[in-house]
């Protein structure tokens, strides 16, 4: 089994890398690298650092790039790490891809934080990739959802069925 | 959706709680409590602190207790945290339970460790519970296995298909 | 022994608290609270959440506020958590306070990060408070410096003697 | 400035390194290595992995070894990481060393734990080394004590003045 991880940015990858005048968060290396470094993964994988943006900053060009990567990649199991604020918008761009299991996940706290939910979410996404039929899914907070059946709740930040 | 978590002990729960003469590891409170405390779980759950043992110490009486809990519990989605050394032995005791999705998981490093794999594994197990048909499974290192198709590799510690 | 901790902000306190549209870092609760919560402190303390700013944003009014708090506080052992970029500028405002041991410290990574240096630095500052004569000091990276004998190196981010 | 760190074992270094049948805690690599790896130390240091024992297991031969290392080492700033249960007993063996600042420290939770106090204590010890006159000290829970003025409280685990 092989999984392709695509980095787009979002909270999961937020870091503060500068030694001097490190004013604001920046998107660092893919959190997935560090997470898989801890788990002795029993599967093959590749990590594609495609985009490094907060999901509120993603534009159509970015989403087209994600779509093309998903379409052209030879693998049929894909996990996309992505900011939660616009996850469903990006998912819509992939809705015509019919032969792959594509799972969006992310985090409400950066992987760099010791109280992050990122390892849990990536663990869920890796499992969803293997057990779900082709389709576009969102995996967060211990749940899996079809991409077009949820929205992010504007107070709790959780995904709720619509 | 509701998930029942059953604590049996194992590395995932190892802790060093004593302030004085805290010589050796002990099994502490269920790691699952702390893990779910970080993820804003989007599902109902209960945690049953059934046993607190290294899995090398589990005996037939313990396994019978686990079996009875699984049989009698009203819920059909169960995650059992368990030491990896004898996970498949305990799973065998549950093999006659036909109407529930029961997932064993654990960790190679205690949840208390900052480089633990426990959040990843529990995240995987929670997802497996929702997406797999009834049966007894082992979820570790990013993979799901039918309980009777794997054994723990005696050098790497990973589960390998047999 | 009693120590007064004054929060001014800086990297040590950076957090990402919002569940929705949590775009940028914000200064959260004092990191010192969480740090002291882990160590079973064997001394009395108070924590004063005076300012919540990146140190590049501190202005004269803010520095006056810090100065007044230090002067008026009844305690003679004070630890100020502060961004490193302008630590020496703020220290200068306190240079007329002659009867207190005042120690600036901070972090190059937020306390929220699992690879943060914040606990080490606060541990150093707490010790410096007890063992040094009255004066204004900067404690970072395992060293203590008189405030007017160092500057922050613009590449490494460490404090170097001048 | 140069600091010599001597590892003797104790809770600070407890780890669970085995992939298979990792039943009990073992003393791993010096925690000080990992701690200094996070802080961009602004001083020179060496780490001497002298002993790897719970302090309840240290015997006279071990203590003689620690004494000889302290006497023969060319450096006059020494931090000894050590289990807290018998710290004062070992300190007594060093009480004739008059020209060095020797600081004992340790942890109530292993450095491997995310809620460990080890970074705080080592940060305190590093500072104590620089600011205190020659002597044998114990630094724990944010306090520094002359070695012969304290004992470990048998309920709280803290050091109390006697």
Could you explain the architecture of this structure?
- The structure is a homotetramer of 162-residue chains.
- Chain A has 162 residues and is of the alpha/beta class.
- Chain A is 26% helix and 30% strand.
- Chain A has helices at 31-38, 60-72, 87-93, 118-131; strands at residues 2-9, 14-15, 26-27, 44-53, 77-81, 101-105, 135-140, 143-146, 150-152, 159-161.
- In chain A, the strands form three sheets. A six-stranded mixed β-sheet of chain A has the order 4-1-5-6-7-8, with helices on both faces. In chain A, strands 2-3 form a two-stranded antiparallel sheet.
- In chain A, strand 9 and strand 10 form a beta hairpin.
- The first copy, chain A, is globular, with a radius of gyration of 15 Å.
- The first copy, chain A, starts with a strand and ends with a strand.
- The mean pLDDT of chain A is 94.
- Chains in contact: A-B, A-C, B-D, C-D.
- Chains A and C meet through loops of A and loops of C.
């Amino acid at each position: 089994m092989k999984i392709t991880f695509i980095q787009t940015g979002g909270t999961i990858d937020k870091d503060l890398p500068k030694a001097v005048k490190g004013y604001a968060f920046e998107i660092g290396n893919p959190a997935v690298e560090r997470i898989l470094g801890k788990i002795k993964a029993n599967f093959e994988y590749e990590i594609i650092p495609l985009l490094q943006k907060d999901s509120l900053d993603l534009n159509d060009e970015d989403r087209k790039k994600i779509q093309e990567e998903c379409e052209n990649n030879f693998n049929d199991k894909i996990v996309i790490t992505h900011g939660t604020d616009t996850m469903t918008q990006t998912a819509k761009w992939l809705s015509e891809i019919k032969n792959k299991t594509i799972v969006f996940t992310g985090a409400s706290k950066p992987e760099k934080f010791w109280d992050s939910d990122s390892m849990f979410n990536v663990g869920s996404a890796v499992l969803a990739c293997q057990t779900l039929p082709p389709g576009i899914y969102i995996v967060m907070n211990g749940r899996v959802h079809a991409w077009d059946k949820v929205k992010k709740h504007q107070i709790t930040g959780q995904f709720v069925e619509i």
